[in-house]
Design brief:
single chain, 387 residues, alpha/beta, Rossmann fold, 3 domains, 5-stranded parallel sheet, 16 helices
Length: 387
Amino acid sequence: MLGERYNPIANPYAPGAGTPPPALVGRDATIEAAGVALQRLRAGRASQHHMVTGLRGVGKTVLLAKLAALGHHYGFRVIRIEAVNGDDTVRSLLRQARRILEDLDQNNKVARALRSIESVAVTVMGTGATVKRTPSTPDREALADVITDVAAAAADHDLGVLLAIDEAQMVDPDDLRRLLAGVHRCGQDSLPMACVLAGLPNLVGFVAKAATYAERMFTVSELGALAPDQVARAIVEPATEMEVEWSPEAIEAITNHSDGFPFFVQTWAYHTWNAAYDEPISGSDVELAKPHARHALESSFFAARIARIPASEVAYVQALASLGAGPHRSGEVAAAADKTTSQVAAFRDRLIDEGVIYAPRYGWVEFAIPHFDEYVRTNLPGRAPGT
């Protein structure tokens, strides 16, 4: 292999949005706990649900998909949603719930669950409901009934239901309250309904506000950067299966460049493989890949976020980035933008809604994207604070 590039078609690394990495490392404890919880629910025993939080690029969506697959394995029908603003989240839930029911033998419990769906989704596009009532927007108050009735119908067929919601901080707070009320009621009635929520770090507070009992319903897994030994596993294990080796220097270089964030690890490993000539893959190969890896991160992971932000909000982003690594008080960000807190409040709220920043606690803000402050300072230089 020395002097020849490695086959890019055989490249085992997988940078992407929610793309499963070839080696899912550092998440074993969460996966094991979820497996136990799912089996307990199927056995009619109480168990806590799971909440997965972290910045963008730490693998929340990948882990959610893994837990959903685990649910399938243990006899759960899965309702998997990526939450968005507006009615689309509810529409998706109802469509998937209806499909589950349509696959079951029709009986009184299935018919009741279908009626619950219709009571929420009167003529909403895509749900199949045609009840002649107005208005045509969902009657949200029956969402809890949908959850419990679908779980009861599934249980009657010796099945469970797993509700998996990604970007859960985007769910309307009232909708989330009703959904959690349904999941809670399923627990009280010993119905096999499991719930997995994934979102930014502020999801814990968001859920707590939606339901006072929510903190007792969930086990929280806070995903962060991988430890150096875990980065090494993520790099080495996929290559070992292909009889390719990495030098310790190359592994250390990727660890340093990525700071252990899983998406960054995959990006650096992917581009290093494509650029490499040495056997084993060397630190020099990582250097060859540097412009490609950085371009990939800047053009997709970072630039795409900026492209969706109007100019007025970009100024707020520049002000936050000028303060360095966060979190920072909202008042400090406003001062860096030469504005009052009230003047920038609308920008702040929209950026939170867009998932660019989040509030780790009241009155503080931080970027939801690792290294985003460095990217903004380099590519969108603005005023330094106080100038």
